Each structure stands twice: as C-alpha cells, then as structure tokens.
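Researcher: I'd like a structural prediction for the single chain below. Treat it as a standalone chain; there are no partners to consider.
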Amino acid sequence: MKKISVLAVIGVMATASAFAGPGSMAKNNANNNMMQVMTVEQVRGASDNTPVIMQGYLLRQNGENSYVFQDSTGTINLEIDDSDWNGVTVSPTDFVEVWGEVDKNGMSMIEVDVSAMKKL
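Model: Treating it as a single chain, here is the predicted structure.
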C-alpha cells in the first residue's frame, strides 16, 4: 500500500510541475514531444535552429511580420507569419505561449521564427 501512495504523490508532483511556468514542460504542437519552456535569456544563448517554447507578452509590432516579445528576463524579436496566427488575436496584456525556432543572423541579430502560438 505504501508503494502506491508514494507513486501517487510522485505523479501529482510531476503533474503540478508541468504547469509551473518558465522551466516547466510544455507539449510542442509540431511534434507532440515534451519540451522545456525557455526564457528569453535562455533562448539568446541557444544555437541556431533550436526549437523553443516561450511564455510571455507580445508588446508591439516592429515591422510587417516582426513583433517584440517580453518575459521576466528580457525582450526578443519574433517573426510571425500570417499563417502562424491560427486565428489568435492578442493584445500586450495577453499572456501567450509561442513555439518556434531560434534564428541567428550573425552575432547581434537573434530572433525566433514562430510556428504556432496560443493565449494562456
């Protein structure tokens, strides 16, 4: 009986940690794998073409398909093509989750090419 109780507690703790925010796990819509939610700071240190999931706010549009994204660690530019919005409309006060890939164009130009997003 104690083994079942211990396993139940471990299961509850694992489930609760999946909803804990940055550093937690999130299901990537593109391939149904569990990925860790990354901060802007972590994304800036990631390699080119690394798949990422971030949670935060879209502050403003910066160009035709360019947007400024912010979390508690900083800001980064996102490229969001019209087809990647999937009907989602957001304002700067909406907390969102974005899936994408790091796009490094030299040392100073780092952005995330978004493939999907949702409001949380």
